[in-house]
Amino acid sequence: MTPPVAAELGLCLCHHCHLACELERHPHVCPRCGAHLHRRKRSAIARTWALVLTALILYIPANVLPIMHTSSFKGDSTTTILGSVVTLWQEGAWDIATIIFVASVGVPVTKFLVLGLLLCTVHRGSERSRRDRTRLYRGLELIGYWSMLDVFVAALLTALVQFGALGTIEPRPGILFFGLVVILTMLATLSFDPRLIWDTDANDD
């Protein structure tokens, strides 16, 4: 037997203090922190889709365009994210290359896949693996706290590829696009309403 969900029990979770509020007694405002209560985020699916697709489009120039230009006594070089991974791997720094690859490729792609899965299953009103999908979303929230690390790791470690004692490093447009991808995926995670996973029918109200 499927346990009742919060809506069936007349409860609503406050997103600020995480208090389970009784809607009959407090239909609009959380009694503990005074925040506005809402059963579901309005247009959560449409807004999250828009953010995810925009981030996915920007992810292409983030990987194609160079992120750093290095000038030193050895010469000038311009590198992309994946180019820095290949260079570091060839020079034997496989551990640093792995860190850059995970931060700049593994994490963003995982976000795209998980958010896409959650959006598709919620849109279809799927009742399968609700607990697992909720855990996936909580995992995305956890990753979100470290999302900006992607930008700093990619920028700082790419700078080490050919950085000498005498030289200058200048950012290139690729790092801007990559930063926008990180921000948009964070906003997409925040705009998604995990309570929709537990709705029997797809609900975008």
UniProtKB/TrEMBL annotation:
Intracellular or extracellular location(s): Cell inner membrane
Key words, A-Z: Cell inner membrane, Cell membrane, Membrane, Transmembrane, Transmembrane helix
Principal place of residence: membrane
Transmembrane segment boundaries: 49-68, 96-122, 143-163, 175-192
Signal peptide (UniProt feature, chain positions): none
Source organism superkingdom: Bacteria
Pfam families (alphabetical): PqiA (PF04403)
UniProt name for this protein: Paraquat-inducible membrane protein A
Annotated organism of origin: Marinobacter halodurans
